[in-house]
Amino acid sequence: MPVSVVISAVMASLIGFGGTLAVVLAAATAVGASPAEASSWVAASCLAVAATSAFLSIRHRMPIVTAWSTSGAALIAGFGAGIGMDRAVGAFIVAGLLVVACAAVKPLGALVARIPVAVAAAMLAGVLFHFVTALAEHAVASPAVALPVIVAYFAMRLLAPKWAVPAALAAGTIDALALGRVGAMPAPELSALAFVMPSFDTQVMLGLGVPLFLVTMASQNLPGIAVLRASGYAPPVRSILAATGIASVVSAPFCTHTTNAAAITAALCTGPDTHPDPAERWKTGMPYAVMYLLLAAAGTSLVAVFAALPPALIASVAGLALISPLAGALTAAVAQDRDRVAAVVAFATTASGISALGLGAPLWGLAAGLTVIGLDAIRQR
Fold first, then answer.
1. Within 13 Å and on the Cβ side, how many CA atoms surround 169?
2. Cβ contacts of 364 within 8 Å, gap of 6 or more
3. pLDDT tens-digit profile of 103-134?
4. Which is nearest to 287 in space by CA: 20, 24, 54?
5. Average pLDDT in the 288-309 region?
6. Total number of domains in the chain
7. Is the pLDDT assigned to residue 343 strictly greater than 80?
8. Parent domain of 265
9. 377: closest CA among 119, 113, 121, 125?
10. How far apart are CA 13 and CA 359, in angstroms?
11. Which residue, 48, 117, 177, 281, has most beta carbons within 10 Å?
């Protein structure tokens, strides 16, 4: 196997994992996961990514790699506070089943695809908004911890943008050690999976499960498929949705949210730097899967290391990791003048964090945006 293929796979896995782990741990903390459940969340996610990446790449001879849903984790962290792991698992299963349904029932997939991009992107931007704005809060409240992280991120962004978040995490960790703000480091320990019996609460399924499905589809699956198309491939959309949806359902009882097609990290595996021959790039799937198997084995130790770091450091890294997704979502939301007002309404409603009738802000934001779209359609008749 060419060295360039292995290097691309290793870089993609490390950037995808290290750059967004803080967001996943924030989600686990929000729903009230225990340390064992948080470790299982990371390990089971990595196992699902490894299995689906290897299967899809080998099956279709394309560089189809998967990832955990970073935007979905942000949604859970922002709107899943206090729901409990059992009800969260029920919502995760619902989200996975809806992805499988999109693969199995063509009209359902077409219906989801008809949701205006502007409204879906605005809902996502509203989900990510508080994480990014929290950077300023932490810079004021904990400047000794947060400012070195922010400086390292933007400095590395000038040189190698893809490594900006890992560099920020490394710089923040060194700074926290120098300040004596790091707890006791854990002994190395292999990961173990924790099974949680799901509880299917209607309000949580509608308020979290459905938005998790929509965010995963709009912000990860569709862009991931677009990356493959832009690289000259004809991606097997239904196969990708079926594989990731089934993996999400199977892994959910082990405390993990959705698996989906990778988007940003996928670009590292689909270009000429990976291999000059597009027909050979599918081989990145194997070393990529092996890397995630190793990360799965180290999940417990990695979670414990993050738990020893200052909360302001983890929150700052999470906010920095979500700057690019927020920028992309805002750009897509206001790109078309026709849907701009609807997008702003969806964004504002979601960012408000409201909860009514047991349903959270993301669902109300989507509903508000679609309502404005409908009213605009009536006005134009």
1. 23
2. 349, 350, 354, 356
3. 988 877 777 777 788 888 888 888 888 888 98
4. 54
5. 86
6. 1
7. yes
8. 3-334
9. 119
10. 35
11. 48
**DSSP H helical segments within the chain, as ranges?**
3-18, 21-31, 35-60, 70-79, 85-104, 106-113, 117-141, 143-159, 164-179, 202-204, 210-216, 222-230, 237-251, 267-270, 285-297, 299-308, 311-321, 323-333, 340-352, 361-380
118, amino acid identity = A
Average pLDDT over residues 4-24: 82
Residue among 197, 244, 216, 180 nearest 48 (CA): 244
| Residue type, position 293, single letter | L
* Contact predicate 339/119, CB 8 Å: yes
Is pLDDT at 189 greater than 80 in this prediction? no
- What SS3 state is found at 84? coil
Give a yes or no: residue 96 inside a domain: yes
Q: What is the C-alpha to C-alpha distance for residues 145 and 182, in angstroms, rounded to an integer? A: 11
For residue 200, the tally of other CB atoms under 10 A from its CB is 14
Phi, psi torsion values for 359, nearest 5 degrees = -110, 140
How many Å apart are CA 105 and CA 315, to the nearest integer? 39
Asked whether residue 250 is assigned to any structural domain, the reply reads yes
Q: How many residues does the chain have?
A: 381
| Residue reference for tokens 């931007």 | 125
For the ranges 164-168, 171-175, 182-186, the lowest mean pLDDT is seen at 182-186
Q: Is residue 140 part of a domain?
A: yes
pLDDT 10s digits, 227-285: 788 778 888 888 999 999 999 999 999 999 999 998 767 777 887 778 888 888 899 99
Domain-embedded: residue 137 = yes
What sign does the dihedral 217-219-224-225 (CA atoms) show? positive
